[in-house]
């Protein structure tokens, strides 16, 4: 089975610290590598994480504040250097096209990789290519800032004992899955008689926003929610003013959206110990973890 995990390559907010790099998050999922908001130094963080950059297949940029995008250019150049043969899909808010272009061509290099740009103009379904369903929503951050929801397709799970009892095996199983029914020994077997549908898992990425209805819709029922918590709740007024969230607000979102796991990130440099923020969130949403540079979180089925 392919690797399924979330690697934190950095988890600071605007200002990195001695302990936290600028944000960047790699989700390895169904043979792809989804990289979110590569900030400065992301390329080097891959080395520390012992992950080869060519695993990246898609890059998502929430918005064009520096802490969320300054690593885009160097990552593209690195993938170019590594001569990746697969296309690199880049998703970003369309209003920031000029920033994307500058990042992509910020210095001299001969571009040999295939970069497929997906500038997102409106909220809703961005793409459903059979591997992932990608949805976007605009958040409340004062600039065009996108939250993402990625969902894998539903899977058919067969009941092996039922298949065996009916004498269905090998290519017939695939035929049944494809056609929805199968004729066996004079009987018609419907797919749902011998299988169930396992809904695809969803991952939600919400950073740099005040709490807002769009964030709730993106997060609803997600298996994993990676959410900003720039401040502790005692700084709620400041968080509102700077258009961010507190740990407690992230937990409220996770609870209301009924997610399975909440991971907090995008910590203000004022906090030395992100556990402090996680502890605050746990008072409302117990299954909360604090991001930490180079830490991996499983994203098991
Ligand atoms: Zn930020
Ligand atoms: Zn921002």
Output the keywords.
single chain; 301 residues; alpha/beta; Metallo-beta-lactamase, Chain A; 2 domains; seven-stranded mixed sheet; 9 helices; globular; binds zinc ion
What would a concise description of this structure say?
With 301 residues, this protein is α/β, with parallel strands linked by helices.
Explained architecture:
The protein is α/β, with parallel strands linked by helices. It has 2 domains: 5-149 and 199-298, Metallo-beta-lactamase, Chain A; 156-195, no CATH class. Helices cover 25% and strands 29% of the residues. The chain is built from 9 helices and 18 strands. The protein has helices spanning 42-48, 72-81, 97-104, 160-166, 171-179, 213-219, 236-241, 247-257, 274-282, and strands spanning 5-10, 24-29, 32-36, 58-60, 88-93, 115-120, 124-128, 133-138, 146-151, 155-158, 181-184, 187-190, 195-198, 202-206, 224-228, 261-265, 288-290, 296-298. A 7-stranded mixed beta sheet has the order 6-5-4-3-2-1-18. A 7-stranded mixed beta sheet has the order 7-8-9-14-15-16-17, covered by helices on one side. Helix 9 (274-282) links the parallel strand 16 and strand 17 (288-290). The protein is globular, with a radius of gyration of 21 Å. It starts with a strand and ends with a strand. The mean pLDDT is 96. Bound molecules: zinc ion (2 copies).
């Amino acid at each position: 089975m392919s690797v399924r995990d979330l690697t934190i390559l950095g988890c600071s907010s605007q200002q990195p610290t001695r302990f936290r790099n600028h944000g960047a998050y790699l989700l390895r999922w169904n043979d792809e590598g989804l990289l979110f908001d590569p900030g400065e130094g992301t390329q080097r963080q891959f080395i520390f994480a012992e992950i080869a950059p060519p695993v990246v297949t898609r890059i998502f940029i929430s918005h064009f504040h520096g802490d969320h995008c300054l690593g885009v250019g160097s990552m593209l150049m690195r993938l170019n250097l590594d001569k990746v043969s697969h296309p690199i899909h880049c998703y970003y808010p369309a209003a920031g096209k000029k920033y994307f272009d500058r990042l992509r061509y910020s210095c001299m290099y001969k571009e040999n990789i295939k970069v497929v740009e997906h500038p997102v103009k409106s909220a809703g379904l961005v793409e459903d290519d059979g591997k992932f369903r990608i949805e976007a929503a605009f958040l409340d951050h004062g600039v065009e800032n996108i939250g993402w929801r990625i969902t894998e397709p539903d899977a058919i799970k067969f009941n092996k004992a039922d298949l065996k009892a009916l004498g269905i095996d090998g290519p017939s199983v695939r035929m049944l899955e494809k056609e929805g029914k199968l004729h066996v020994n004079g009987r018609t077997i419907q797919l749902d008689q011998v299988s169930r549908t396992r809904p695809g898992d969803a991952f939600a990425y919400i950073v740099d926003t005040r709490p807002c209805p769009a964030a709730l819709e993106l997060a609803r029922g997600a298996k994993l929610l990676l959410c900003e918590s720039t401040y502790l709740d005692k700084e709620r007024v400041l968080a509102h003013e700077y258009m961010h969230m507190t740990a407690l607000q992230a937990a409220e979102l996770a609870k209301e959206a009924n997610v399975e796991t909440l991971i907090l990130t995008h910590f203000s440099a004022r906090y030395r110990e992100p556990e402090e923020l996680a502890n605050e969130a746990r008072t409302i949403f117990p299954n909360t973890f604090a991001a930490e540079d180079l830490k991996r979180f499983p994203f098991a089925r």
